[in-house]
Amino acid sequence: MAVVGRTPAMVALLVLAAAAAVAGLPAINVTTMAFEEGYAPLFGHDNILRSADDRTVSLLLDRSTGSGFISSSMYQHGFFTASIKLPSDYTAGVVVAFYASNGDVFEKRHDELDFEFLGNIRGKPWRVQTNVYGNGSVSRGREERYVLPFDPTTEFHRYSILWTAAAVAFYVDDVPVREVRRSAAMAGDFPAKPMSLYATVWDASTWATSGGRYRVNYRYGPFVASFTDLALAGCRVDPALLRTGPAAEECAEAEEALRASEPAVMTLEKQQAMRRFREQNMVYSYCYDALRYPVPFPECDVVESERRRFKSSGHLRFAFRRQQQRRRRAGRPATNKQDT
Q: Has 144 been annotated as catalytic?
């Protein structure tokens, strides 16, 4: 796609509209912001590059440090989005993350909602991992992992987190890819405390690629992850009031509006698009990981036809993985360097 005369945000919107059209879903309208309107640098300040209009931010990982930024406010529920372009070429050991967390405030009982992008060796695709933690439930990881039906290094693609009192949903280019609905059986495992939004790039050589077999090779650095179309729609909460009581009352009106908003209404068309994405792109699910979790989690909607596609480790069986690879090759230009 030609980008001459177009800003990264304009290109991201064009890609987003095309992706949503392919899925048969309308694009989700959000109000984007300049970086300083909603975010601030977190670490690696010299490795954070901001565009002249302050609407695109690049995070660098080099031998000296990674980098990251954090939202200026904490939120009690919301819809949070960023269009992201990932580093290309050899990216083994590199992790780019866009996530909500309150670990800085509740160290031992924190909540977290993650998009984690896991780098790979040359010629292998980036993988995307989503996580849901509540009240420090990291020992009960609810990870799912996917490959993407596009090359995330050539253009911006939108990644969104919806968080309400009733459900969590993850979107890729306005297509829902995962939904976790709150149930009484989940108890404190459902994230319920106010969180900040983060974006980071860092060295995760010990685990990110093939369990640590392939490490970051800084000869291919610096590794640059770019963010644009930043949007934070939710109820802002004063951190000074967090320990005096729940934020639910002061956010009741905003919560009602959020649950009635387009991202939160899971239509039949969205459910069908989500099922297609998962059938074609999911390569690991904790719901099918009988080795770690012999008894499925209460929110797991175990589909027998889907379960047969996965091994008892929760990983996709080889034959189905090959089908995914053929689909990705068929849908990409012959010159694409990211074919598996």
A: no
Which is higher by pLDDT, 163 or 188? 163
pLDDT exceeds 90 at position 115: yes
Relative orientation angle of helices 8-23 and 268-281, to the nearest 10 degrees: 100
For residue range 169-195, what is the model confidence (pLDDT) as tens digits? 999 999 999 999 999 999 999 999 999
**Helix axes of 268-281 and 318-330: crossing angle, nearest 10 degrees:** 110
**Is 304 among the residues known to form the active site?**
no
Q: Which residue has the tokens 């800003």?
A: 7
**Cβ atoms 137, 110 nearer than 8 A:** no
Say which of 37, 107, 112, 306 is annotated catalytic.
Answer: 112
Residue in the block written with tokens 């934020």: 247
Residue count of the chain, please give it.
340
d(CA 51, CA 66): 19
Quick one: average pLDDT of 185-213?
A: 95
Indicate left, alpha or beta for 278 from its phi (over 0: left) and psi (-120 to 50: alpha).
Answer: alpha
301 contacts 201 by C-beta, under 8 angstroms: no
* pTM of model > 0.85: yes
Amino acid letter, residue 234: G
Distance between CA atoms of residues 191 and 182, nearest Å: 9
**pLDDT at position 90, please?**
97
Please tell me which residue in 116, 155, 255, 299 is annotated as part of the active site: 116
- 61 pLDDT exceeds 60? yes
